[in-house]
Task: inverse folding
């Protein structure tokens, strides 16, 4: 299966299925099945400018 077919299948998975079935199929996917190619790698510059935000618990 080529990348275009995978994207078509992924889009079909996300759009044409009931929520419960979609969730089950996503949980069954392995890490190798996930396409991360559209996410840029995080470099040192990202971490140099990153800030840790913590939320104060509401009482």
Result:
């Amino acid at each position: 299966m080529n990348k275009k077919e995978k994207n078509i299948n992924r889009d079909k998975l996300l759009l044409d299925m009931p929520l419960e079935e979609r969730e089950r199929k996503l949980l069954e996917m392995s890490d190798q099945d996930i396409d991360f190619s559209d996410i840029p790698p995080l470099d040192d510059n990202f971490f140099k400018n990153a800030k840790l935000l913590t939320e104060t618990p509401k009482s």
Summary: Residues 1-33 form one domain.
